[in-house]
Amino acid sequence: MGYFDNEKGVRDYIKMAEGYDGSELINELRHYLKDGASILEIGMGAGVDLDILKKYYKVTGSDSSQVFIDRYKKLNPNADVFQLDAKSLDINRKFDCVYSNKVLIHLTKKDCIESFKKQISILNPNGILLHSFWNGNKIEKHHGLLFVYYTEEELRRMVENDYEILKIQKYTEFKKNGSIYVILKRKK
Looking only at Cα atoms, what is the longest distance across the chain? Predict the structure, then answer.
């Protein structure tokens, strides 16, 4: 059983993440994606970013943890949310954007590349991706969870064959330039 597959892990995460959200990322996304567009959030967790995204977009939330999905559905019974693995992305729908905030960091580098390749198939033509990561060059494990850090150069190499890179930017969340995001556009 994984860290997010039980109530204690989910409660601990929610407490740890309190006060943090993707507002800065979403504000940046709005420069590239028109209001009303369809978005799939991968790894929605407690739904903090999903709630911000739904102010501007038609949102679908997903998470590998059924505990997170059930908690969100209890508060938002009409929400379009479901269980989904970030690597396989086994879904028969298409979106204008795929978004995640420090979710792909829990995949191995090989699985992250596979996820990026799979995301092409669920993006509409000219679709956009926005994903954030920890900035750096290390791999850690905490509470059985994998945390993979990425450099700008490594992210460029991972995506440049399949996506047009619109922006790669370091930003400060917990520590100065400790985070990095990519905004990508599906190549034709």
Answer: 44
Distance between CA 179 and CA 161 in Å, rounded?
Answer: 23
- Give this prediction's pTM: 0.91
Q: Which is nearest to 33 in space by CA: 127, 159, 160, 132? A: 127
Cα–Cα distance for residue pair 188/124, rounded to 1 Å? 10
Rounded to whole angstroms, the Cα distance separating 159 from 150 reads: 12
Cα–Cα distance measured from residue 41 to residue 97, given in angstroms and rounded to the nearest whole number: 8
Tell me, what CATH number does 76's domain have? 3.40.50.150
Give the whole-angstrom CA distance, residue 172 versus residue 181.
11
What's the structural domain count of the chain? 1
Per-residue model confidence as pLDDT tens digits over 68-83: 899 999 999 999 999 9
Which residue range(s) make up the domain with 132?
Answer: 3-186
